Amino acid sequence: MRLIPRPIHRYSDRQQGLVDGAIFLMAHSTNPEIIMVIELVREAEKSVWKAGFSRCAFAEVHVELDGKDVWSQPHINQTGSGETYSMFVRPVQPGELEEK
Questions:
Q1: Which SS3 state, helix, strand or coil, does residue 14 take?
Q2: In the chain, at which end, N or C, are there fewer CB atoms within 10 A of the end residue's CB?
């Protein structure tokens, strides 16, 4: 996968201690697979970087930092209503994709 270098959203809230935040996508070809959120947060007298990840795919996904696995999710075959990520699949009917 490759990191798409431009964030899809950038934000901050200095009054709440959020110095800077950005949402990035990691993609396989042009398909987003992982959402990555990175924030610089002010805690007491220092600033701390924080990161979080969420899946956008059925595939098994891993995020590594300095050669160490920091986040991973197993392959899934389907999603349920209680999942944080849902995908709905509907079989194509014969002739449905033919041009009319």
A1: helix
A2: C
Residue type, 28: H
Contacts with 56 (C-beta within 8 Å, 6 or more apart), sequence order: 25, 32, 33, 34, 35, 85
DSSP string of 23-79?
EEEEEETTEEEEEEEEEEEEETTEEEEEEEEEE-SSS-EEEEETTEEEEEE---S--
Of 27, 80, 82, the closest CA to residue 55 belongs to: 27
Q: Is the pLDDT of residue 85 over 70?
A: no
Closest CA to 71 of 39, 30, 28, 26: 26
For the residues 9-29, what does the mean pLDDT come to? 95
Structure letter (DSSP) for residue 91: P
